[in-house]
Amino acid sequence: MLAITQAGHLACSSEALGANNRESCPATGIPVTRPPSTEPHRALTLRDVSEVSGVSEMTVSRVLRNRGDVSEATRTRVLEAARRLGYVPNKIAGALASQRVNLVGVIIPSLSNMVFPEVLSGISETLEDTGLQPVVGVSNYQGDREEQVIYEMLSWRPSGLIIAGLEHSEASRAMLAQAGVPVVEIMDIDGEPVDSAVGISHRRAGRKMAEAIVAAGYRRIAFLGTHMPTNDHRARKRLEGFEEALAGFGLSVVDREFYSGGSALAKGREMTETILKRTPDIDFLYYSNDMIGAGGLLYCLEQGLDVPGKIGLAGFNGVELLDGLPRRLATMDACRLETGRAAAEIIAGKRATGVVGGEVVEFEPKLQPGDTIRKA
Amino acid sequence: MLAITQAGHLACSSEALGANNRESCPATGIPVTRPPSTEPHRALTLRDVSEVSGVSEMTVSRVLRNRGDVSEATRTRVLEAARRLGYVPNKIAGALASQRVNLVGVIIPSLSNMVFPEVLSGISETLEDTGLQPVVGVSNYQGDREEQVIYEMLSWRPSGLIIAGLEHSEASRAMLAQAGVPVVEIMDIDGEPVDSAVGISHRRAGRKMAEAIVAAGYRRIAFLGTHMPTNDHRARKRLEGFEEALAGFGLSVVDREFYSGGSALAKGREMTETILKRTPDIDFLYYSNDMIGAGGLLYCLEQGLDVPGKIGLAGFNGVELLDGLPRRLATMDACRLETGRAAAEIIAGKRATGVVGGEVVEFEPKLQPGDTIRKA
DNA sequence: TTGAAAGCGCTAACAT
DNA sequence: ATGTTAGCGCTTTCAA
Q1: Residue A96 CA from chain centroid, whole number
Q2: How deeply is A275 buried, as exposed, middle or buried, from its count of CB atoms within 10 A (0-12, 13-18, 19+)?
Q3: What are phi and psi of B138, to 5 degrees?
């Protein structure tokens, strides 16, 4: 099942050894100066470029950063030398000296849920032309892990921090508050941000969906979602808003089913089968995400159920995937791309500002009725 | 659609200023307490902790890194002081002084294709207990962008670099070769790695699939995939291997269809419809990825086609998603998790080794026949 | 337009 | 077990 080949080749190129060590690649059999294996790799410094180009380190530094006035002649010579040597500046030293770091920490719970990579895309897209670089940390939905990641990131003194959610341990909140750089909490605005926040109100999203469902005439409504003891605050808030709105209509969720782990599509099928067998008169299935909703939809269609006539379905997130299903699942867009963009803009715009201000950007989740909810 | 609230609070606490927030007015020498609002945030240093705890900076440093012998009493006092102040070490300074950086650069083409986040999971899982931290860079399938990202990453002097693919610009290869740290090229081993490589042979994967298809008795075989002018080398190699093997049986691909962009599931449907209308006697559809394959499968089932009797289908990647489909699409596992793990192990195991060795780890892609290919 | 000196905050190496 | 000294490679500041 697993084959391992030991190639044991030497990554050797004459250029790799720098200008000041003439030697040949061992493979060719031509005499060499140094045995490569004993040569500890020494990274090039400004000094090397300085010596080769014949100008001071300071001038080399200026050229490489496009700072200050440098004569065209000098500029050319320096760039040429740097290129020839393959010089790569040491940002660690640069950052220490300048007290400036072009890194933005981004902390998300997971990479397996497409929702987060999508927000990331928005962030990285917006950061692209600001000279800032996102650095991603993953907390695995664990508070203590999140704490570690925050600590780790702050120790690199980034220009800003973007972090998913508003719920963090006390220690985490303390670190964020003291960070001295803009902090943007994303994907949820139902709560008290440490600094800035960008996202949608999940309570509101839940409420809106409930209103749409009731308006369409459904009454025996069930909820299906992830098992969310403490972790998935956003799903919990959505459910809270959902039930709150139902209560306003004198209704409540007639049954519910939870899962954790596994293929969401398959789980959606199973849960749907389970809940419909247990409570056959359900006329609407509200899923906490689109993938389980899609699984449920496939199940219902296979069973020949009348969707959306006898039974309606809705998910949450607005994932692109839904486009190819036999029927378009009703869902609600979580504005992930916009959220990522706005968060990045806050960080980018705040650079070099001493004052830490708080800004809350709320996006309005849009209902996408699809084909699985009756027209009102 | 978009609401913005300005909260404008100041993230300022007396603790943040450290123990020495009492200072003298330069002019009069009379002690004053500074108004917090005008206080530009100054990050705490070892020195602050040293002063508060009453031991030297060096000892504080030792405690914080668990290095060397420190008395339990001192240890406690230092930790207490650090905790109270909310001290977060400056890794930039630490890295510069120690010449060691616990970062591993990971460069992938995209985050939108779940394949890459999955490899990332394998990497980050394995790195977790090594003290190393992955830093992710995205190249958007663009060679020049990749070059920039490599440059940017190397300028932080990471302990290693993991990069998708074997095809890079000349400048990129030069940088990688000179990096002086282990470099692992992943997800493809058909080519000449700069240093180490981990992944599967896509040529071989294509060949294997062709053999399985022919063995099952299919003869009118079509290919559907991404439009791959220069970018998707892995898909290209797969197709090459596929056609090569077909040729061995005296067969060739009878039709082909390409797409780019959009929802893969929806595209899979469209392409399948198109190609089947154009060439009705096709008896096998080989897709370059599972998502378009799933779309095609849904289409075929809706059309009432006899799958796998009259027409067979296969995808590539072995994505978990397939589990919930009406029928399990035949596919080939690309060993993404294992690839991520092995790459991370190479980096972790090589730390502090001066020698640059090359190691090639090949995984064997496994055919998952599913329910869309006839039993031979 | 260019150069010299003085750190940035930490750790290695060497005292004590 | 703890402290002292001398940088790490760069940029800031000031001088020429």
Answers
A1: 27
A2: buried
A3: -120, 130
Any residues with CB less than 8 A from the CB of B301 and at least 6 apart, and which?
B307, B326, B327
Distance from CA of A239 to the nearest CA of B (A): 23
Task: Let me know how long chain B is.
Answer: 376
Considering CB atoms only, which of B16, B263, B355 is closest to A37?
A: B355
Answer yes or no: is A98 CB < 7 A from strand D: yes
**CB of B73 under 7 A from strand D?**
yes
The tens place of each residue's pLDDT in chain A, 376 residues long, gives: 333 332 322 222 222 323 222 222 222 222 222 334 444 578 999 999 999 999 999 999 999 999 989 999 999 999 999 999 999 999 999 999 999 999 999 999 998 888 999 999 999 999 988 999 999 999 989 999 999 999 999 999 999 999 999 999 999 999 999 999 999 999 999 999 999 999 999 999 999 999 999 999 999 999 999 987 667 899 999 999 999 999 999 999 999 999 988 889 999 999 999 999 999 999 999 999 999 999 999 999 999 999 999 999 999 998 888 889 999 999 999 999 999 999 999 999 853 444 446 899 999 999 999 999 998 6
CA–CA gap between residue A156 and residue B135 (Å, rounded)? 12
pTM across the whole model: 0.87
One-character DSSP codes across B116-133: HHHHHHHHHHHHGGGT-E
Rounded CA separation B277/B279 (Å): 6
CA–CA separation, B123 and B134 (whole Å) = 8
Nearest Cα neighbor of B105 from B57, B76, B146, B44 is: B146
Q: What kind and span of H or E run contains B147? A: helix B143-154
Contact B135 A136 (CB under 8 A): yes
CA distance A362 to B8: 16
Residue in A242, A144, A232 with CA at minimum distance from that of residue A188: A232
Alpha-carbon gap, residue B287 to B263, rounded angstroms: 15
Nearest to B163 by CA among B178, B182, B180: B182
CA angle A268, A270, A276 (to 5 degrees): 95
Across the A:B interface, residue pairs with CB atoms under 8 Å apart total 229
The torsion defined by the Cα of A10, A13, A17 and A19, in degrees rounded to 10, comes to 170
Residue A175 has which token pair?
A: 């670190």
Residues 6 or more apart in contact with residue B129 via CB below 8 angstroms: none
Asked whether the beta carbons of A328 and A299 are under 8 A apart, the reply is no
What H or E segment, with its residue span, contains residue B152?
Answer: helix B143-154
Contact A272, A296 (CB under 8 A): yes
Contact A8 B357 (CB under 8 A): yes
Nucleic strand C under 7 Å from the C-beta of A70: yes
- Contact call for B2 and A324, based on CB within 8 A: no
Token output for B174: 């030069």
CA distance linking residue B114 with residue B135, whole number of Å: 18
- Name the pairing type of β-strands A160-164 and A183-186: parallel
Q: Is the CB of A58 under 7 A from strand D?
A: yes
Mutate to test the interface with A, among B159, B178, B337 (most CBs of A within 10 A): B178
Rg of chain B taking only CA atoms, in angstroms: 28
What is the rounded CA–CA span in Å between residue A347 and residue A123?
10
Q: Is the link from the previous residue into A308 a cis peptide, with omega within 30 of 0? A: yes
Phi and psi based region of residue A29 (left: phi greater than 0; alpha: psi -120 to 50; beta: remaining): left
What DSSP letter does each residue of B174-208 carry, written as one string? Answer: HHHHHS-S-EEEES--SS--SSEEEEE-HHHHHHH
The C1' atom of D15 and the CA atom of B101 lie apart, in whole Å, by 36
Peptide bond before residue B308 is cis, with ω within 30 degrees of 0: yes
